[in-house]
Specification:
By secondary structure, the chain is mainly alpha-helical. It contains 15 helices and three strands. The protein has three domains: 67 residues, Orthogonal Bundle (Multidrug-efflux Transporter Regulator, Chain: A, Domain 2); 98 residues, no CATH class; 101 residues, no CATH class. 26% of the residues are buried.
């Protein structure tokens, strides 16, 4: 119904706006759309301003705003830009959650998991960014809180943490789940603490073959020579291994090899190396090959030829 005074009945208002009569009536009862006046028979009548309010309310509702926010915007009690900003942030959070859910489903579909593994995967994956960071912070505080090891493992883990992106690939999600398990593993925490304490104690001790200044060059040498010997199937106790040792550690005499083997063993751990490989996957860095087997081969060779 439309009156001569330009007023609309609720049915006409619904046809003009595409909003159902039931919804308009509910909005009226909720105070979102006030009735302009009533007919002699008591029917609700609305003017052009009410029509515009219904159209705006419908748009805001589609954007996810609740009735309280819609009413505040229509009454100009809050700024539309502020309300939009809040809801945009909420939608961002929802989108991130949906992307994680999609990654979880893609991972399950691609690799297959048991019911228990699926539950764990979902539980760890749905942690917020702040909750994931708290997991890392708790690991750091528990493992290195009272250890000062400039340049050592504790400092590196403090500075370089896994940062799962908002739209992770299945590989990144799988890597995060594995990292989360490591961070909560008591034996892993004890092992990295042992390495940090040893590094802090030894510092830059003279003769240390893998201190901060020479560590990279030493690792490259081990990978090149000991890695090649391992790949060639050379026995660490064989005579050929002696030549490899001298190429990697030319300044270490046989009498000192057992001590050097202990030093290297302290800082060689497949799980720690795996942690860094997983962080690289999560953070989108280039992958790097495993060097732990080469170091383990060198340790055995040093012990066999001291």
């Amino acid at each position: 119904m439309k009156t001569d005074g330009g007023l609309h009945g609720i049915g006409a208002l619904a046809r003009h706006t595409g909003v159902s009569v039931r919804t308009i009536r509910f909005w009226c009862d909720s105070g979102v759309i006030p009735v302009t006046t009533r007919s002699a028979a008591g029917h609700r009548l609305y003017d052009a301003r009410a029509l515009a309010r219904v159209e705006l309310a419908a748009t805001l509702r589609k954007l996810g705003l609740g009735l309280r926010d819609i009413r505040d915007v229509l009454e100009e009690r809050v700024d539309m830009a502020d309300v939009a900003a809040v809801h945009a942030r909420a939608l961002d959070a929802e989108i991130r959650a949906l992307r994680l859910q999609r990654a979880v489903l893609a991972l399950i579909a691609a690799r297959g998991t048991t019911t228990r593994e699926t539950e764990m995967l979902h539980e760890l994956a749905r942690l917020s960014a702040s909750e994931r960071q708290r997991l890392v912070d708790d690991f750091v505080a528990d493992s290195f809180g009272d250890v000062t090891d400039p340049g050592g493992i504790g400092e590196r883990i403090r500075q370089v943490t896994p940062a799962l992106p908002d739209d992770p690939t299945p590989d990144q999600l799988h890597a995060w789940v594995e990292v989360a398990r490591l961070l909560q593993d008591r034996s892993f925490r004890d092992r990295v603490r042992e390495m940090a304490v040893a590094g802090a104690r030894e510092g830059n001790a003279e003769g240390r073959p893998f201190d901060r200044e020479r560590g990279r060059a030493f690792a490259v040498s081990v990978s090149e020579h000991a890695g090649a010997a391992l790949a060639a199937g050379i026995d660490p106790a064989s005579a050929e291994a002696e030549a490899v040792i001298r190429r990697v550690l030319p300044d270490v005499e046989p009498a000192g090899r057992a001590a050097v083997a202990r030093q290297i063993e302290t800082f060689t751990d497949a799980r720690v190396e795996r942690y860094w490989q997983l962080v690289a996957v999560i953070n989108g860095w280039n992958a790097f090959p495993s060097t732990t087997p080469a170091f383990q081969w060198l340790i055995e060779a040093l012990r066999a030829h001291h």
